[in-house]
Input
Amino acid sequence: MSSAAPLAAPSHRAPDPATQPSGAAAAWSAAAVTVPHAVGLGLLAFAPLAGDYSLAALALWSAALPGLLLTLLAPRAGVVYAPTTVVALLFAAVLATAHGAAPALGLNARQVLAVSGATVALAFVFQWLLGVLRLASVARFLPISVTHGFAAGVGLSMVLGQVRNGFGAGAAAAWDAQLGWHALAAGAVVGLAWWLRGRWPRMPGLLTAVAVVALIVAAAGWWSGGPGAVLVPAVQPSVFAWPPLPDWSGIPWMALAQQQGAALVVLALLMALVNSLEILVFNQELELDHGLRGDANLALRRESLLGALCGLAGMIPASTSASRSRIVLAQAGASRDAPRWHAAIMLGVALTGPWWLHWVPMACLAGGLVLAGLMQVPGLMWSLGYARRSRVTWAQSWLVALVFAVMGGVGALVAGLVVATFVLLHDSAATVLRHVRLDGELRSRRLRRAGSDTWLAPRMNQVAVFELQGVMSFGVAAHLAEQVRMLLQPRHRWVILDAGRVPAWDSTALAQLRALVRDLGQQGIAAAVAALDPLAADHAGEHVRAFADLDRALEWAEAGILSQRPIEQRPARPERDLLGEIGEGVPRAAADALMALLEPLDVPAHGVVFRAGDTDHDLLVVKSGHITLVTLWPPDKGLRLATVGPGMAFGEMAFLNGAARSACAGAERGPAHLVRLSRAHFDAWARQYPEAALTVMNNLAQIGARRLAVTTRQLRAVLE
Output
């Protein structure tokens, strides 16, 4: 979002040194926009005080001094400081609010200026807090419809403000000759500036158009009589004067707070939010398009301190002017001289303004503000193609903009928050399903014997896994339930909702979850939720099956599928088959001889079998219970690699190659009963039964191949 947009087409290409103008020339191009824009906004903002003090002094010094202070105390290459549209308009709203309350509270003009200054200082304190707490980056999460709506709302407010006051003629009740002449002069400025825009790129046409129309008025002698008598000068003739200082004494702050406190605080908050957003967005542009890195939070803090000081002094604070900075960057690159020349030019305008400003018709400055307001509206909002492609976003942007223009900043802030909330909820619902796996692509880390795995693999397409993401509210959960029901196919008998990426659930979302689980159960589909937040799991109820992680939920589904296996195809009970998978195909006599060499090993709950780096080479087989293999023990400190159950062997790598253990093994869930086979006993047995030993070694090779395939499958799932 920008303040008054540049009337020279911006370019993000690096300037050619051979044709690059000096910093002074680039500063003059930027000042050609700043002079009519800042002076016009200053006159608009301070208009309620025109009967008490020199309007020229108030407007001219606000246009020059704050930008000069920022340039001297917080210089940045290529960055121009000037009163921005949003700050100036909200300053005007604050001053108008304070001036409206003045009769009831007995405030004089300088006290009104003090109240306005205190409110603006509060706005920059809010902005400073955003920088101190490093919350500026939060602004980037505002939907584009809100940021575009705020920008367009500021622009429309400028345009409507000029229409309401008759383009500088005062309150326009109806169309008459006076309003017609002012509209003609303002329209001439708009048309001429727009015509010059593409024909005089080094010198933006706004100041030129204002000067040309003002000279035409003067040359026609309209000030002395005739139709020109209806044109109101920007200010009355005056002499050089310093701006009045606010009067901080005798202000009934408590009565003011009760009467207008809420409105003033909201205006201050809106000023801080929108100005911070503008600074943040332009800092991103500086980094991405121009390679000028900077800390947006630091920029907020620096500008806030000087902005609060200028507000307390009764002036409109300056800020990073994106439009003027783009002109300098396009013409002179990251020049350090151009911002200084710009500040010097504006100081010269403030010093000489009282002698020439009264020759400028207010209608000319009103035309400049109309053009600046129209240029403030993001170009996409004028695009019919964008309106067709992104109808909802386009409509939301115009809704916020119209609320801003009609109801003011307070209504726009509320409308923006409402739109942002609905956009967030809609986006959350649209992206609630991060991944959907309907064909059994995922498997648990539970290792099983070849026969069980052969039975299980083709039947895993009965398991549907939905990976969720985002905050889960009622509407999002309702959308999730609809999507799950729509995507499920007749073959699915198990559903797993992976909630590992869901940071929070509200009670209404949990109600939707319970309803989904109930409906699936009535269809004969078992459902479970993985990685559900413990607090949410407590509130979900006993009917929602919850697992600590996705792996355990997958193991639950696999166990359900294996339970359908015919009894005659199930492996022998481990108590009768101590060798488990390594003994498959071994003749009975050799198997009995090998089982005689096995040594029992009981592992208590949470007990460790071995750790990574241990040098024992025993092969272990699970008789009952489960053993978890992890990179680091205890399991919550490492990565779980696999789980082995009854009949499964582990530790085969050290057994085969004699290397140190590469992982840790232990009983994570409860006690386990194992048998161990030492390498020395196996070698002695192998000399007696060489053919059976080859069968065992072949079994171990197949075990390694299957486990490598499992690892590959898990890695593919992670990468996807």
